[in-house]
Recover the amino acids of this structure.
């Protein structure tokens, strides 16, 4: 009934798209998830720059227009201005920012301006840093909105997303399904993605890559994998759709060596879509295991945790090498069940929508996984060598069970991993069968508005019914 109700709601939303001036796809979703007024089709959204003192700002307009970002330190009166070339998909690189400082900014295209938003630059190494990881938000905007609401309550400095943002990875689907849900958070918190298999179902260069920022210098070409440093941590985002790439393996090796040789970098977190180890329906990726895991588990490296999605569950696994393998594919897509098939030891598995909040202070890393009620389902800590010992686990949920098996905390990887007192994860899933790249599901968004034409009511109704049937099929 939820899907039917949603489809009927989509009829209302689609109807609201017709007969209106084109304000982008988001206009049709304003009733549910308000967007700013004006010609902006998405954004502004933030991306972490490749250095801690830079920030990337991206946004879209329905047609080519000017690119200007006005920004200033909060509390000051004069805006600085960064201009770029006229474009449909706008991108501006703000550099030379002051660490640990809150800025105000707005974007401008033509005569239209966004509201003023804020962002905060990375802290100096050692300063506290809060990061949230989640993924697989496709195909259920309502659940996605619930997860985003909970994520916002954690006030993260960065959100890391392991991809499968929408079902078919099309430009229009990102605008109609993703941004209406995330707009408010991505305007103030950098969202850094790794592409999932659904994100590459549509040609990335004309869809995914047009929209989503990657950490790079302004003059560098866009590529699907990247790394950036923030605080005392390096974050490496990989493209597991192409895990066999020798260039990408070389990139990973170089970044891990860089972190190893940088004393102020205490931790490395690596994230990508296809799990090296997972007890879920998709299971382990042998390619990721053979190409990347030896590097990730190299005792000389500083990898504390590896995050992935693809399986729509929460899980934490261990190979006994001091690296926590976390599967957090619970951003909205239909849930899967889990089993015992992984090559690694499953420390915790739960078929629930979820996200993981990571708090980093000095040599200590605390990670807490939450379900869609905001209840703790798991927690673990990592302490880098030379730290003052392991810290208390996160607070368990009131009905926390005892099914958490302690991680065999190896020491060869540098850090140590201790389990917390995570609670029972719930039994929400029944082993869905989604996940095929290329499954089209436009979710009944306002493509009508994007096309800049009015649509007859009958077409609207048929479109909504088709979306409903696709959604039902995707959930089988
Ligand atoms: Fe996937």
């Amino acid at each position: 009934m939820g899907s039917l109700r949603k489809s009927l709601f989509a009829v209302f939303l689609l109807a609201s798209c017709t007969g209106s001036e084109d304000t982008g796809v988001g206009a049709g979703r304003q009733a549910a998830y308000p967007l700013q007024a004006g010609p902006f089709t998405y954004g502004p959204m933030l991306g972490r720059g490749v250095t801690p003192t830079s920030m990337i700002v991206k946004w879209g307009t329905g047609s080519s227009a000017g690119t200007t970002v006005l920004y200033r330190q909060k509390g000051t009166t004069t805006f600085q201005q960064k201009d770029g070339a006229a474009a449909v998909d706008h991108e501006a690189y703000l550099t030379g920012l002051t660490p640990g400082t809150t800025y105000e900014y707005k974007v401008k295209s033509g005569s239209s301006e966004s509201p003023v938003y804020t962002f905060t630059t990375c802290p100096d190494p050692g300063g506290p840093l809060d990061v949230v990881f989640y993924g697989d938000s496709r195909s259920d905007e309502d659940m996605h909105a619930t997860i985003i609401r909970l994520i916002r309550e954690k006030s993260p400095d960065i959100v890391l997303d392991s991809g499968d943002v929408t079902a078919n990875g099309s430009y229009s689907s990102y605008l109609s399904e993703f941004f209406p849900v995330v707009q408010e958070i991505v305007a103030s918190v950098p969202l850094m993605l790794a592409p999932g298999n659904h994100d590459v179902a549509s040609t990335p260069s004309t869809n995914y890559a047009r929209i989503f920022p990657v950490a790079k210098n302004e003059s560098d070409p866009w590529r699907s994998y990247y790394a950036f440093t923030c605080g005392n941590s390096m974050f490496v985002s990989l493209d597991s759709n192409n895990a066999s790439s020798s260039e990408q393996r070389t990139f990973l090796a170089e970044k891990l060596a860089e972190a190893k040789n940088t004393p102020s970098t205490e931790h490395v977190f690596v994230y990508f879509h296809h799990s090296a180890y997972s007890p879920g329906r998709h299971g382990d990726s042998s390619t990721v295991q053979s190409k990347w895991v030896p590097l990730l588990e190299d005792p000389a490296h500083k990898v504390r945790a590896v995050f992935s999605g693809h399986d729509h569950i929460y899980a934490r696994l261990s190979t006994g090498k001091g690296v926590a393998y976390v599967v957090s594919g619970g951003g909205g897509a239909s849930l899967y069940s889990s089993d015992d098939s992984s090559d690694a030891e499953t420390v915790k598995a739960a078929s629930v929508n979820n996200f993981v909040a990571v708090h980093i202070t000095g040599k200590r890393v605390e990670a807490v996984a939450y379900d869609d009620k905001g209840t703790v389902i798991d927690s673990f800590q990592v302490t880098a060598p030379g730290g003052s010992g392991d810290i208390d686990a996160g607070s368990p949920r009131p009905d926390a069970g005892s099914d958490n098996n302690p991680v065999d905390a190896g020491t060869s990887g540098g850090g140590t991993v201790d389990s917390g007192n995570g609670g029972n994860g719930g039994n929400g899933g029944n082993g869905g069968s989604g996940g095929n790249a290329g499954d089209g599901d436009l979710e009944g968004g306002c493509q009508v508005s994007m096309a800049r034409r009015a649509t007859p009511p009958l077409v609207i109704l048929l479109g909504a019914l088709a979306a409903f049937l696709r959604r039902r099929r995707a959930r089988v």
Notes: The longest helix spans residues 457-475.
